[in-house]
Amino acid sequence: MREIWVGIHPRSTETRILATAGPAETLLKARLAATPGHPRALASLLEGLALWQGTRVRAALCADRRDGTFGTSLFHDWLLEPAGPLFTLEVAEPRRRRQHDGLGGMGDFHDLRQLVFLGLAR
């Protein structure tokens, strides 16, 4: 399997997560609580996804300045552990573009999908 790309977009009301196999195949979409319940939650989530799929994870913490949150205050473990044997985590800034993935009910995640593609495809 190809490397997994993950976009993490913290907001004041929720944290959105999008995981894809390359730029096109959606593996996981989630809307989680705005702040994690444990300091290692983000690293554990990325490690778990890598173990589940059997491949490395490249993740981008999407810093949305318009929402008033940068994410580092929400994800303390990123400051201490920006990479591990199963994942890497970078900071990126969202951009806008529409794309339909066929998974309804949770929104289209178009901004997060574009960010993951642009930020991790380099």
State the CATH class. Alpha Beta
CATH second-level architecture: 2-Layer Sandwich
Fold-level CATH name = Nucleotidyltransferase, domain 5
Structural class: alpha/beta
Whole-angstrom Rg: 13 Å
Keywords:
3 helices, Nucleotidyltransferase, domain 5, five-stranded mixed beta sheet, single chain, 122 residues, 5 strands, alpha/beta, globular
Q: Would you kindly provide a written description of the structure presented here, covering whatever features stand out?
A:
The protein is an alpha/beta fold. The protein has one domain: Nucleotidyltransferase, domain 5. 24% of the residues lie in helices and 28% in strands. It contains 3 helices and 5 strands; from the N terminus they run E-E-E-H-E-H-E-H. The chain has helices at 41-53, 76-80, 110-120, and strands at 4-10, 15-21, 25-32, 57-62, 87-92. Strands 3-2-1-4-5 form a 5-stranded mixed sheet, sandwiched between helices. The longest helix is centred in the middle third of the chain and has 13 residues, at 41-53. The two termini are 19 Å apart. The mean pLDDT is 76.
Please summarize what this structure is.
With 122 residues, the chain is an alpha/beta fold.
SSE layout and pairings?
Layout: E1 4-10, E2 15-21, E3 25-32, H1 41-53, E4 57-62, H2 76-80, E5 87-92, H3 110-120
Parallel strand pairs: 1-4, 4-5
Antiparallel strand pairs: 1-2, 2-3
